[in-house]
Every structure is written in C-alpha cells, then in structure tokens.
Design goal:
With 334 residues, the chain is of the alpha/beta class. It contains 12 helices and 6 strands. The N and C termini lie close together (8 Å).
Length: 334
C-alpha cells in the first residue's frame, strides 16, 4: 500500500497536456491569461493588448489522433502571427516540425500575386516538459543572423523554446520573472503548489481559478482523459514497436549467420528463447515508459513502486496506465 502524500495530490487537469493547454488559453474569458503568456515569452517593445484567435484546421481537432499536435494560433494587432504549442513528450524531428509550422504560417499569409512587402513577422512558441537542447537555458530564442558577427538579416522569423525542466536555473537568474512565474504554474505537480502560486501572483490566481473551472467541467475532463490515453497508447506503441523491430533485426541476423546444418531441435530451442527474450524486452520497455509517465505526472517515483512496475505483467501495466489518467495521486494508480 502506497502512503498518500498530500503534497503530491492533484485534482485539477494538467495544463501540460496539449488539449488542456489549448482549452485553457483559447477560451474567450481567459484572454488576459493568453496575453500575459505571450507578452512574457515574446517580450515585445510594446505590450500586446489584443489578439485574434485563429481556428484550428478541422482535421487537427480529433483529440484521439495521438500523432497530431494541438497548437494555438493567434494573430496580433499588427498582423503578425504566433503559433503556440505545449508538448509533454518528445516527438521525432521536433526542430524540423517547429520550422515547418513557421513556414506554413509565413507562406500562408500571402495570396497569389500579392507583393512580398505584405508579409508580416511570424513566431512559433514551443513549451516542452522535457529537455530538448543540451544547454541549461530555460528560454531559447532563434532568429536569422549572420554566423560571424550576429547581424540580423530579418526579424520575420522567430522561434521560441521554453523547457520547463530547466526552470530551476531560470529562477536563480530571475531575468524573466513573468515567464518563470508561468513556468511554475505549468510545471506544478500538485494542487498545493497551485494554491501557493495563486497567493503570490494575481495573474496566476486568475489562471488557477480558470483551471479550477475547466477541471470542474465533466466534458473537459472526458476530453482530457481521452487525449491523455491516446498519448500514452501512442508512446507505448512506439516503445513496443522499437523493441520488436530491434528483436526482429537480431533474429534475422542470427538466422542468416547460423550454419545450415544446425539440428532442428537446437533451432527450435533458440527460437523459443528469442521469443521469450523479445517478450521480456517489450514488457521492460513498456514498464520504463510507464515509470516516465508516472514521474511526469506525480513527481519522483519511490524505489518500491519502481520495483513493482518493473516486475509487472503486460495486463497490469495496461491497467495502471488507464488508472493514471484519473488518479489524483500516485497511490490511486495502484
């Protein structure tokens, strides 16, 4: 029996889930929150005071499609466009995906035959719950500059990367206080953390109230749980597929390298041994993926829980994955 830790209990939806982030910041009644976040990341010369929310393409709104990204697209008063995305887990070729998002925004604003002077600056903001770059910088900004003397070629491209696991170093520097405050809100692991932030910062109190209201909506909770299950299934599938592909490659290499004169009994025994090893490898991969998911949602996983997960069978791992969607604490999963 896992002891309940009140400091780790969370009943509110997690804004690090992309659909929760989208529902929270796209709501008309929460427009001040969106403006605060955009100003904190972009740090414009003049504060952004209004935005126009651009609707997502219909084919990108199915939350059960685990391979899509639910981004938030807005147009600023001067015509500039910004695409904001929350990612809780790394995706293949992430830097290329971000650059592709920017290119769609930039190219999509110019009708056929229009003058290039009509083009407006576009920016992409990617917030991650994992470390994407090897540096310790919490907020990285990429532009088009000359390699040797850093001369800016154009301000039309701007890519922002905010890595939540690097928040601690940013708090020590305290050079972006509003952005680090938002970082603490997004990275909070328990309701107690959100309550403390709300007492310190009026904007975050407003954000907590909005998150509480969203979390109390049964439909929003259902959509969030569907999305989280889709993402868990997607990453478990990727892990299992990788293990299976590696096992098949090893099996094929061993088969081709064996002498043709091997006895059938030895071949059968080796095949059974490989099959057992492959199954154990897949189970180990899924167990490690579940441990990463538990750590993301509830914080550090105790050694006894880690041992229990690594020794579990396939059906137990699937059951615990499903429970993690709605359990407010680690104890509720088991």
């Amino acid at each position: 029996m896992i002891a309940e830790n009140p400091d780790r209990v969370r009943t509110t939806l997690d804004p690090k889930i992309d659909i929760v982030f989208w529902m929270l910041f796209s709501a008309e009644q929460n427009r001040e929150l969106l403006l605060s976040l955009l100003n904190a990341v972009l740090r414009p010369a003049k504060p952004i005071v209004s935005v126009e929310l651009l609707h997502a393409q219909p084919e990108r709104t199915d939350v059960t499609d685990k391979s899509i990204a639910l981004d938030l697209r807005v147009r600023l008063h001067g015509g500039e466009q910004v695409d904001v995305e929350m990612q809780s887990q790394r995706r293949p070729a992430q830097p290329k995906r971000v650059l592709y998002y920017w290119s769609r925004l930039y190219a999509g604003q110019l009708p056929r035959g229009a003058d290039y002077s009509a083009l407006r600056r576009c920016a992409v903001v990617l917030i991650t719950d994992y470390k994407e770059l090897p540096t310790s910088r919490f907020h990285s900004v990429f532009e088009v500059r000359e390699r040797h003397d850093a001369e800016l070629l154009t301000d039309q491209l701007e890519l922002h990367l905010v890595e939540l696991p690097k928040l601690h170093d940013a708090l020590d520097r305290n050079d972006e206080p509003t952005l680090t405050a938002w970082g603490k809100f997004l990275a909070a692991r328990a309701d107690k953390d959100l309550e403390a932030l709300a007492m310190q910062n009026p904007v975050l109190k407003q954000a907590k109230d909005a998150l509480d209201s969203l979390s109390a909506d049964p439909r929003a909770r259902a959509v969030a749980e569907m999305r989280e299950m889709a993402l868990i299934s997607y990453h478990l599938h990727l892990s299992a597929a990788k293990e299976e592909g590696e096992a098949e490659g090893r099996a094929k290499g061993e088969a081709e390298g064996r002498a043709k004169g091997e006895a059938e009994g030895r071949a059968k025994g080796e095949a059974e041994g490989r099959a057992k090893g492959e199954a154990e490898g897949r189970a180990k991969g899924e167990a490690e993926m579940l441990l990463r998911l538990l750590a993301l949602k509830y914080g550090e996983v105790p050694p006894e829980v880690r041992q229990q997960v690594m020794a579990a069978k396939q059906d137990e791992l699937e059951t615990w994955c499903e429970r993690s969607l709605s359990a407010p604490s680690l104890a509720g999963v088991f």
